[in-house]
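Tokens for Putative F420-dependent oxidoreductase. Go.
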Amino acid sequence: MAVDLGRFGVWHQAEKWGPELATGLEQLGYGALWLGASPGADLRDAEVLLTSTDAVTVGTSIVNMWKDDPAPVAASYHRLEEEHPGRFVLGVGIGHPERTGEYKTPYETIVDYLDALDEAKVPTDRRALAALGPRVLRLSAARTAGALPYLTTPEHTRQARETLGAGVLLAPEHKVVLETDPEIARTIAREYLAGYLQLTNYRSNLKRLGYADHDFENGGSDHLVDALVLHGTAVEIAEGLTAHLDAGADQVVIQQLGKEGPDLLPGYEALATVLI
């Protein structure tokens, strides 16, 4: 990777980001701010994060290849690079068949999209690919700086590192709830996971990791929910997050659930005291 991401980053959808949260996270020492949920090709939401901060890396996780053509995305990349040199990472991915009207030959579509980014001179070491299964993980290593897995576990990270080999970016996302009551934490987690656990890409990946059909019923088994959403004290959650580093991750991307906007900062501050 041509930019320094640090060991821990933060992921949120655009509606949760804002200048106050971005500035606060940079001051706490987080190495990257990731903009999730298919940001638009103009990358204006990423621009807000860049202009709100001084030096922290900002990335997309991810621009949806089915939603936005590569040409305007590449143009936006170059605009951000000119305005904020060395600070932006373009994360791209294929999305989900359930959320896309046209979804055919996904692997070939990824290859064609990366070819177009090559033609538009988006550097390989300044882009990353959403990847879960072995084939796309290998593609991420061959054609980008590395992989941005979402909704995974440290075991997936271990397997992904074996597939990627050394020297390739691996930055898995992991959700957390700063709540010591397991039932309250699981309620928050299940509310967020409900839609994701119905998506084929995620279900297939989790089944490869050993989860069974019954784990996806009734909002997810405790076993599955606890694996995907860490809860407890900051110290307890930190142990689960660092398990990704022990398994071979370069950066762990944290998504805190249950709060909004600046109200997220106290939780990230608590985590920063034990992680950074």
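The chain has eleven helices and eleven strands.
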